[in-house]
Automatic annotation (TrEMBL):
<feature type="site" description="Essential for prephenate dehydratase activity">
    <location>
        <position position="184"/>
    </location>
</feature>
<protein>
    <recommendedName>
        <fullName>Prephenate dehydratase</fullName>
        <ecNumber>4.2.1.51</ecNumber>
    </recommendedName>
</protein>
<comment type="pathway">
    <text>Amino-acid biosynthesis; L-phenylalanine biosynthesis; phenylpyruvate from prephenate: step 1/1.</text>
</comment>
<feature type="domain" description="ACT">
    <location>
        <begin position="207"/>
        <end position="285"/>
    </location>
</feature>
<dbReference type="Pfam" id="PF00800">
    <property type="entry name" value="PDT"/>
</dbReference>
<dbReference type="GO" id="GO:0004664">
    <property type="term" value="F:prephenate dehydratase activity"/>
</dbReference>
<keyword id="KW-0057">Aromatic amino acid biosynthesis</keyword>
<feature type="domain" description="Prephenate dehydratase">
    <location>
        <begin position="12"/>
        <end position="191"/>
    </location>
</feature>
<dbReference type="InterPro" id="IPR001086">
    <property type="entry name" value="Preph_deHydtase"/>
</dbReference>
<dbReference type="GO" id="GO:0005737">
    <property type="term" value="C:cytoplasm"/>
</dbReference>
<dbReference type="GO" id="GO:0009094">
    <property type="term" value="P:L-phenylalanine biosynthetic process"/>
</dbReference>
<dbReference type="InterPro" id="IPR018528">
    <property type="entry name" value="Preph_deHydtase_CS"/>
</dbReference>
<dbReference type="InterPro" id="IPR002912">
    <property type="entry name" value="ACT_dom"/>
</dbReference>
<keyword id="KW-0456">Lyase</keyword>
<keyword id="KW-0584">Phenylalanine biosynthesis</keyword>
<keyword id="KW-0028">Amino-acid biosynthesis</keyword>
<dbReference type="InterPro" id="IPR008242">
    <property type="entry name" value="Chor_mutase/pphenate_deHydtase"/>
</dbReference>
Length: 319
């Protein structure tokens, strides 16, 4: 007699909600998340805390956008909340509309509800079209529109175009982002107990590094760990540590995987400069573009160099 298969346990994913956000669109790109429980939260810290505490299996968060650069609140959270690992990267094209309660006209708008990141991506249009406006921060792009009906603090909201299918609003303006090719980069964050995804040849590695001393050339010494090994940095941003003026940590994305010889060797070098370096993860690039490596930085060259040194130390003949 056959034994019935036990039901697979449901996995839980936290994301910045409510429904309709760009973060939800990023989570929809994760095959393993399809058909699982999606838990809407109010901010990045809450999403990552869910993962750290074991309440969620993973969280999707925005980490960078093509107009304003890194999302500082996400970078700071990843740098300070222990037990987290980035396991995936996803890209979402973003565009925005200005919406308002029915009957509101553009000339009546004085205060605008918007997520701070979205507001920053639309400031040129806003300054030109509504120069005397005020900004009311919202927890997410969709929440900005929803809050129009809960409060009179704002006259209009910056929101994704799809919000018109969720709320009874008028669209006062379309395409208000400062760039019509804007893209936001999201990362899927899991516990460190989850294995590092295998190398694909089109990977990124993310770390956070702090300088142990503040002296001339200290940052150059850190960065040389990558340049001398042929490791390209696709992101380098500084964030204040917060314990004193002039103290910064560096959020760094590298082209390559931690199991690539050149990347592993560079991380060993970084460890000397930054004893508190945090490995955030190695994961497939969202665009799946393979990393091009010069011949002198391939795995085989690093392996041959180690073999050469081993022979020197063993006293064996060296060609």
């Amino acid at each position: 007699m056959s034994t019935p298969h036990a039901p697979q346990p449901e996995r839980r994913y936290s994301y910045l909600g409510p429904r309709g956000t760009f973060t939800e669109a990023a989570l929809a790109q994760v095959p393993e998340a399809v058909g699982q429980e999606w838990h809407s939260v109010n901010n990045v810290g809450e999403a990552l805390a869910d993962v750290a505490a074991g309440r969620s299996d993973a969280a999707m968060i925005a980490i960078e956008n093509s107009i304003e650069g890194g999302v500082s609140v996400a970078q700071d959270a990843l740098a300070t909340i222990p037990g987290l690992r980035v396991v995936g990267e996803y890209l979402v094209p973003v565009s925005f509309v200005l919406v308002a309660r029915r009957g509101t006209t553009l000339d009546q708008v004085r205060r605008i509800n918007a997520h701070p990141v979205a507001y920053a991506q639309c400031h040129r249009w806003l300054d030109a079209a509504i120069p005397a406006h005020g900004h009311v921060p919202a927890s997410s792009n969709v929440a900005a529109a929803a809050e129009l009906f809960d409060s009179a603090l704002a006259d209009a909201a910056i929101a994704p175009p799809g919000v018109v299918g969720l709320y009874d609003v008028d669209v006062l303006a379309e395409g208000i982002a400062d760039s019509d090719t804007a893209v936001t980069r999201f990362v899927l964050v899991a516990p460190t107990s989850r294995p590092v995804p295998p190398r694909t040849g089109a990977d990124k590695t993310s770390i956070v590094a702090e300088l142990s001393v503040d002296r001339a050339g200290a940052l150059l010494g850190l960065l040389e760990q990558f340049s001398t090994r042929g490791v390209n940095m696709s992101l380098l941003e500084s964030r204040p540590i917060g314990d004193a003026l002039g103290r910064y940590r560096f959020v760094i994305d590298l082209d390559g995987h931690v199991t690539d010889e050149r990347v592993a060797d560079a991380l060993l070098g970084v460890r000397r400069f930054s004893p508190g370096v945090t490995f955030l993860g190695s994961y497939p690039r969202a665009d799946r573009v393979p990393t091009v490596v010069e011949e002198r930085y391939t795995d085989a060259v690093f392996v041959e160099a180690r073999d050469w040194l081993r022979e020197l130390l063993s006293g064996a003949p060296v060609d």
